[in-house]
Amino acid sequence: MDKIYNHSSEFMPELPDKCVSLMVTSPPYNIDIRYGNEWKNGRVTKSKGKKYADRLEEEEYRKMLFNVFNETKRVLKDDGQLWLNIKNRCVDGNIIPPFWVMDYFNDMFLKNIIIWNFDWGGSTNKRFSSRYEYVFFFTKDDKKYTFNLDDVKIPALNYRPDRYKNQLKNPTDVWKISLVSGNSLERTEHPAQYPEELIERIVKVGTNKGDLVLDPFMGSGTTAVVAKRLERQYVGYEIEKEFIDISEKRLADV
Ligand SMILES: C[S@@+](CC[C@H](N)C(=O)[O-])C[C@H]1O[C@@H](n2cnc3c(N)ncnc32)[C@H](O)[C@@H]1O
């Protein structure tokens, strides 16, 4: 497959039913990120206005997500799985958690809510600075799904040869993985890029070589880059052509 389509993922006519093994994505947050600006050396040099506004009316935003996830469920295999990275919104200094998104998946099985913890970000002095996002992990079938735990185990801190068979352990549901920093090698001009390391763990645990991975909000192509490197197939959707150009450049280097 290995293709990123330049239109909304509310409809995925290119994909037959039940062809995708795993979906992983971070949807637009509807917090007015100015997608579509021109950037140079990490700074916006020209605002092209809202080619795509990340601030839809809330009802319109949720309807868009509903359409995308409905379509995702159609293309997901019966033993398929879905990983969704989303964070709290902060409006006028108050936190709005994103648990409403779980309503879209009442017909699926919630296996984990991962806390993705990182070291830096914005700071405040009226509450504790926020240093995590969520990753929801749902499966279509309760029992039948891929989970290659051995491929993602991490070194145990207090290895005791007399107690444990080996020194690798389950990474648990709290993952400490750095955000993509300004001078990181994987940094692109996309304003909301997630780190390859985060997606690598998900693709490794949830798929096998040759499986098809979908990202309906492909952005700068992180999901595709990781899938390609791990010898999985990828397919994605992105409404901004300039982000597809970034993805293609990154993919050419894999
Ligand atoms: C949070 S970003 C994803 C970033 C990506 N994870 C990365 O690492 O670069 C969300 C992306 O979804 C795109 N987008 C918004 N609405 C869309 C839609 N209906 N269909 C496809 N893409 C959409 C935006 O242009 C934006 O690039």
Secondary-structure element pattern, one letter each: EEEEHEEEEEEEEHEHEH
The CATH superfamily title: Vaccinia Virus protein VP39
- Average pLDDT over all residues: 91
CATH class: Alpha Beta
CATH architecture: 3-Layer(aba) Sandwich
Tell me the overall shape: globular
Explain this structure.
The structure is a single chain. By secondary structure, this protein is α/β, with parallel strands linked by helices. It has one domain: Vaccinia Virus protein VP39 (Rossmann fold, 3-Layer(aba) Sandwich), CATH 3.40.50. Helices cover 19% and strands 26% of the residues. The chain contains four helices and 14 strands. It has helices spanning 58-75, 196-206, 222-229, 241-252; strands spanning 3-5, 20-25, 38-40, 43-46, 76-86, 89-91, 94-96, 109-117, 132-139, 154-155, 168-169, 174-176, 212-215, 233-237. The protein is globular, with a radius of gyration of 18 Å. The chain starts with a strand and ends with a helix. The model is unreliable at 49-53 (pLDDT under 50). S-adenosylmethionine binds at residues 8-10, 26, 28, 35, 52, 64, 190, 192-194, 217, 219-220, 222, 237-240, 243. S-adenosylmethionine (SAM) binds at residues 8-10, 26, 28, 35, 52, 64, 190, 192-194, 217, 219-220, 222, 237-240, 243.
